[in-house]
TrEMBL record:
<feature type="binding site">
    <location>
        <position position="235"/>
    </location>
    <ligand>
        <name>tRNA</name>
    </ligand>
</feature>
<feature type="domain" description="4Fe-4S ferredoxin-type">
    <location>
        <begin position="191"/>
        <end position="220"/>
    </location>
</feature>
<dbReference type="InterPro" id="IPR004453">
    <property type="entry name" value="QueG"/>
</dbReference>
<feature type="binding site">
    <location>
        <position position="206"/>
    </location>
    <ligand>
        <name>[4Fe-4S] cluster 1</name>
    </ligand>
</feature>
<feature type="binding site">
    <location>
        <position position="146"/>
    </location>
    <ligand>
        <name>cob(II)alamin</name>
    </ligand>
</feature>
<feature type="binding site">
    <location>
        <position position="203"/>
    </location>
    <ligand>
        <name>[4Fe-4S] cluster 1</name>
    </ligand>
</feature>
<dbReference type="GO" id="GO:0005737">
    <property type="term" value="C:cytoplasm"/>
</dbReference>
<feature type="binding site">
    <location>
        <position position="260"/>
    </location>
    <ligand>
        <name>[4Fe-4S] cluster 1</name>
    </ligand>
</feature>
<feature type="binding site">
    <location>
        <position position="226"/>
    </location>
    <ligand>
        <name>[4Fe-4S] cluster 2</name>
    </ligand>
</feature>
<dbReference type="InterPro" id="IPR017896">
    <property type="entry name" value="4Fe4S_Fe-S-bd"/>
</dbReference>
<comment type="similarity">
    <text>Belongs to the QueG family.</text>
</comment>
<keyword id="KW-0963">Cytoplasm</keyword>
<feature type="binding site">
    <location>
        <position position="170"/>
    </location>
    <ligand>
        <name>cob(II)alamin</name>
    </ligand>
</feature>
<keyword id="KW-0671">Queuosine biosynthesis</keyword>
<keyword id="KW-0170">Cobalt</keyword>
<feature type="binding site">
    <location>
        <begin position="253"/>
        <end position="254"/>
    </location>
    <ligand>
        <name>cob(II)alamin</name>
    </ligand>
</feature>
<comment type="subunit">
    <text>Monomer.</text>
</comment>
Amino acid sequence: MQGDSLCCARLEGAALVQAIKRWGRELGFQRVGVTHADLGDAEARLLDWLAHGYHGDMDYMARHGVKRSRPSALVPGTVSVICARMNYLPPQARASRSVLDDPERAFVSRYALGRDYHKVVRSRLAQLARRIARHVEGFAWRAFADSAPVMEVELASRAGVGWRGKHTLLLARDAGSWFFLGEIYTNLSLPADPPEADHCGTCTRCIDACPTQAIIAPYRIDARRCISYLTIEHKGEIPEALRPLMGNRIYGCDDCQLVCPWTRFAKTSREPDFAVRNGLDDASLVALFGWSEQQFLERFAGSPIRRLGYERWLRNIAVALGNAPSTPAVVAALEARRDHPSALVRVHVAWALARHGR
């Protein structure tokens, strides 16, 4: 944990929590909550999910062991967790459904259209922590934003920031699910907020809408079928049976969020860092497939997509082109990559060309 020796007016208990929430809002977070570090039976559910192999080749999920479900095992001395959420939906982005309905365009998950959220959210959390440190002696902390083995949704739901939807994402009545989560692990014993009640009821729209039927039961996902996993986490060949179901989704998938009734309450982001870059909200598949590796690296500097790597970027677009109409431009783009140096790219290009009768 990091510490700060600066100190001014001391705050404690409920007064401190209220101040933390106010400071969080001033730093751009829409909601802040506090929970204890004991995750109870969440560990048993995590271990059962891993035992079924639903994590696919995300080996790090198992490698970290109980550090994910025991905050004090990850950061010794952790007693409380401060959870926060920040809206990310870009206000100027083309409507998702109109992109998904245009098979010659590329759909990129809305969270990845702008700057890398890891850096933005973690930086704001660090600012919040330093502000707390000025008012609390002995305050120690570490901040995370999808950057360590942390059960973000579990913690946030316990902290009253929202509730876990049947698609396993966090939902909020005033924001849907279009937000990032972040946490501050701390040695302070803070009053915990009550958890948010579940407001999904009998609705199954997210389950019904999943293109690959990856939501195998309410609150349970088989990542091996999830398009977000296949296009981002999975390093090898995408299973052939799933390729036609991916449509034009080249990085992530938002379908379960788009159909959720709570989405209508979502707010667009005021963060300039989350504004659309490189026209990714409405880009041509053919145009993106024509990028050189240098263009990929330069244009995605500071983007979460850069970590995907150029090879998998081409793999994903090749699949989408295989699902696109058989226009001369589409076929020509694929033919140009037929002899690509990467075997991974060649396999998916060959599949796509076969789809177009080539």
